């Protein structure tokens, strides 16, 4: 198929999926909090609060200010937000720029995958992985949570992806998942032992395990280097510009996700040379 056709289609598909991602990013943490609250109440033999249904589908998209349901034509990815100039049609409450931003990033990711890998089933899987990483990065940045509901399926999907599309790398993927988890687990305990503080959460280990599955154990040093490097750079910038207190923890998930994107999208030549170096050079 001609890029004249596939690139715009990929962009639109990415934007539509990004729109769904917005729902996941906003609602999944709330759904988890509600579930934990109910579980805690049950464990304490308290009567659980009765709350109205809240999931990815219910209630429909509405304005956070006045509750006005958003019409489908105002809910179109990016266009809807631009059309209303980022405000609710009924009451004028500001609608966060996060919504069109996520849709644009998702669309750009889809475009990058089609441009770099062409149109194939493997590309569709890659898009799924990149979008899951996007959701995790934003959720972790906002709430310091990396939900199991995304990290664990991402891990299984990575192993399946290798089995389907690169079975010769399956062994490296299994080892990658195990050593991805263990590497951060080890850093966590060493850090805790040395400083008495917790530098990361278990979600970070699971996310690194998932990337180990998608990219193989050989990619782990690169992933660790990239995520720690970018994380340190952003952390220092935030402290220097006084947007972040020195002792305030910075979520690590967004940087692991960023490293994952780089490795998944442009990492193939990088990883190739690097594998050759590991296996042949020394
Ligand atoms: Zn409103």
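-> sequence recovered:
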């Amino acid at each position: 198929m001609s890029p004249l056709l596939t690139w715009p289609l990929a962009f639109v598909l990415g934007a539509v999926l990004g729109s769904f991602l917005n729902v996941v990013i906003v609602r999944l943490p709330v759904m988890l909090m509600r579930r934990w609250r109910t579980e805690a109440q049950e464990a304490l033999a308290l009567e659980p609060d009765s709350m109205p249904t809240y999931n990815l589908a219910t209630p429909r998209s509405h304005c956070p200010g006045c509750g006005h349901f958003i019409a489908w034509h105002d809910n179109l990815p990016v266009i809807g937000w631009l059309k209303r100039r980022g405000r609710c049609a009924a009451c004028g409450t500001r609608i966060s720029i996060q919504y069109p931003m996520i849709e644009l990033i998702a669309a750009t990711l889809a475009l990058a995958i089609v441009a770099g890998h062409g149109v194939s089933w493997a590309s569709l899987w890659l898009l799924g992985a990149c979008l899951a990483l996007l959701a995790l990065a934003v959720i972790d940045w906002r709430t310091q949570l990396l939900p199991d509901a995304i990290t664990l399926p991402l891990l299984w999907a990575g192993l399946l992806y290798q089995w389907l599309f690169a079975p010769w790398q399956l062994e490296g993927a299994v080892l990658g998942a195990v050593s991805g988890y263990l590497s951060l687990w080890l850093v966590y305990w060493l850090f805790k032992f040395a400083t008495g503080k917790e530098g990361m959460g278990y979600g970070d280990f699971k996310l690194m395990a998932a990337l180990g599955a998608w990219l193989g154990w050989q990619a782990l040093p690169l992933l660790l280097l990239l995520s720690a490097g970018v994380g340190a750079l952003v952390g220092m910038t935030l402290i220097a510009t006084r947007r972040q207190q020195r002792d305030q923890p910075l979520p690590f998930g967004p940087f692991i996700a960023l490293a994952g994107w780089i490795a998944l999208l442009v990492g193939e030549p990088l990883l190739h040379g690097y594998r050759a170096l590991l296996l042949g050079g020394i």
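Residues 6 and 114 are 8 Å apart (CA to CA).
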